[in-house]
Amino acid sequence: MSEPERGMAEDAVVVEGLTKRFGDFTAVDGVSFRAAPGECFGLLGPNGAGKSTTIKMLTTLLRPDAGRARVAGYDVSEQPQRVRSAIGYVPQMLSVDGALTGYENLLICARLQGLRPAVRRRRIEEVLAMLGLEDAAHRPVRTYSGGMVRRLEIGQAVLHRPRVLFLDEPTVGLDPVARQGVWEHIERLRQEHGMTVFLTTHYMEEAESLCGRIAIMSRGRVAALGTLAQLRERVGNPDASLNEIFTHFAGHFEHQGGLRDVSRARRTARRLG
Amino acid sequence: MSHAHAGPHGASVDAQPDVYTNPVWRYLVHAATLVDLELRKLRRDPSELIMRAVQPALWLLVFGQAFGRLRVVPTGGVSYMAFLTPGILAQSVTFISIFYGIAIIWERDMGLLQKFLTTPMHRSALVLGKQLGASTRAVSQAVIVLVLSWLVGVRLRMGWGVFGVLVLVVLGAAFFAGMSMVLAALLKTRERMMGIGQVITMPLFFSSNALYPIDIMPAWLKVVATLNPMTYLVDGLRGLLLGVGTHAVWVDLLVLAVAGLGMLCLASYLFPRRLAG
User: What domains sit in chain A, N to C, each tagged with a CATH number?
Assistant: First the structure.
């Protein structure tokens, strides 16, 4: 209840003191924040800041070592099954099968979400229409462009109308036009379905154009949290770019990330190319 | 867009929910979906199966033909080629399954596994679906080997026992694929999986009854062969296809089913803990 302006209704994401260690390395170090229903919340930071690890804990892929997280009202450690029914997740890497068609990929996902056959068909058609993939629906995904693959992946994640949609670096490796297209679709999903969108990014423009509130992560901690206007105010410069804001709160980019992150980022970029 | 659409069964006051509510049915749908995924991929690109048919063909055509002339192996009254066929069938089932874990690691590196693990699918439904997915590959492999053996003149018993053969192949592949998934969870990289695959396939093969009966083995090897699940696969196949099994077929089926179930439990435990991140 530390933020009274976001009322009594249950927040979509509540994170308190969340921590994850890999051996001696603390990837996420006592992180706390909340995201309101219908909000687009952005985790911003360079590679290696702990964004992906945070999102993996919220999507039940990794178990937290300390702290608590509730997603759509369910505890990620104690009710992972309920969390999974309430979320959609688009991983940073490739989550479609290139040998299958777009329709088949959606069909597999719809079945795994447990949708009944009649609902399944309707939702798949809806998603294909919404994401502009109707004409390509019966083509193998390996013939898709990078932007189409991303849209299909988002489609897979929203078939069951999740309450919270998690996107890990949704536009990494995309050209500016494809990126713009993906942003428009994310924004439409949020507005038309009242979906809470939770994304990680290291692109300033992405956070600026999509996110209501932003948490800046650096070395596993939240260095700053607020709307862009609030963050600018704290920096003391109403025209500060997100880049300047970031540098103000978290220092320079160069300190973080290593060979592993570089190779991962390149691999992710290559798969879409 | 969140309009309540009345489905074909939505006439009553309580409209049918969008998702399956019966947990058993949902579990089966989930496992079957992964098998379906495997079948669709197999149909698109059967080249792997064809390449994998080369090795069993060599064993039957070259090794079987030459070694059979020696007439040194007590085969229980059947020709050595016939004796060898169930062994080679079991070998191809085992080998195709034992490298299955590499596909899992590939899926994990790509992000497909993460997609599966964030759906409401039960962990063991994922593993079971993958095990049976490997079984579908093994069944198509088995068909190829049986056709090959017929071409080289081996005449097997092809009655209702063929269904038993299918069940044995499905269970055997499910066991070895489960074992492969356990190894994948422990080893985590494709390179290590390739290595371990090479290391264990041949010992599994030579320490089984695939090439020679257990009776002629030294005592220590008999112990190993008795513990080797491949022995039960070969024995069951020999029982059904030639009528010269050592155990009753149901014993072989039971051993493979229990071993496969053990791998299902172990992989379901290890998988999300070691490969989810």
Answer: 13-272 (3.40.50.300)
